[in-house]
Structure prediction request, 317 residues.
Amino acid sequence: MTRKYIIGSRGSDLALWQANHVKGRLEILFADSEFEIKIIKTTGDQMLDVALSKIGDKGLFTRQIETELLAGEIDLAVHSLKDLQTEQPDGLVIGAVCEREVPNDLFISRSFKSIDELPTGARVATGSLRRKSQLLNYRPDLEIVEIRGNVPTRLKKFAESDLDAMILAYAGVHRLQLDAGVSNVIPFDVMLPAVGQGAVAIEVRGDDADVLAITSKLNDHATRTCVTAERSFLRRLEGGCQVPIGAHATLGNEMVVLEGLVGSLDGKVIYRETIKGKPEEADQIGIRLAEILIEKGADRLLEESRDQPATAAGTVM
Prediction:
């Protein structure tokens, strides 16, 4: 007997690309079942005229979807992993993490090929405190401008502006095939990505053995190991959109290498370290790295970030 599975997703172009990617792979694996996407609007989708750092980020892009998942209105939810809280609501688990796209950030400009080429006082758009902190640390002479919206919207706003550059995640731009002519990928030594950036997560009810079984077929072990380390790092720091935190883990030669940072809002102070360990210790590796940075003073930076909401020099909402 054919079963119909409902996949919950946000309605942005990128969210629907991700949901359709999961749907297509499941349809190939389970040809006798039916899969349908249900679009659910989240708080983050409704508040496009407010900076993310001022809204608070507890379930900003996931809460309404998770509510429907818990209520049985949908069978699974597809998210950008970096939008998910580091601890799932009671009753929900991450059933799979798909193979990760390139996790770097992307430098976009009409006139310049890299951050290094930007002239003094150049205006750079980003809606991320993590990117702002690292940009100002690398180039304190830059002016950072707030920008919100989904990927096509931000690209359109940038095209119609007099801004010198904009920073977006490579994965989103590439998946939507909007990276033709884009300047360059920013190396990790200049900018660490957000935790989980470039990875797609499938969230399911913990007691739904059927859905857990089918979604597990899409799980990529290496990606999941790496993001486990990154997410435990973020969880220990209790961070999110309101604080400048970056991390990136790799898996090779049976070792996880995790690099993480915590920065001040103005970019004047950055605490950054790298550690490594065994894959089965991924969760502990993230905790250990967080505690190393806390010992250096990262906890004070985090408190300052939470107590003092950032404001950009300008805004392109």
About this structure: Residues 13-29 form the longest helix (17 residues). The longest strand covers residues 255-263. The chain has a mean pLDDT of 91.
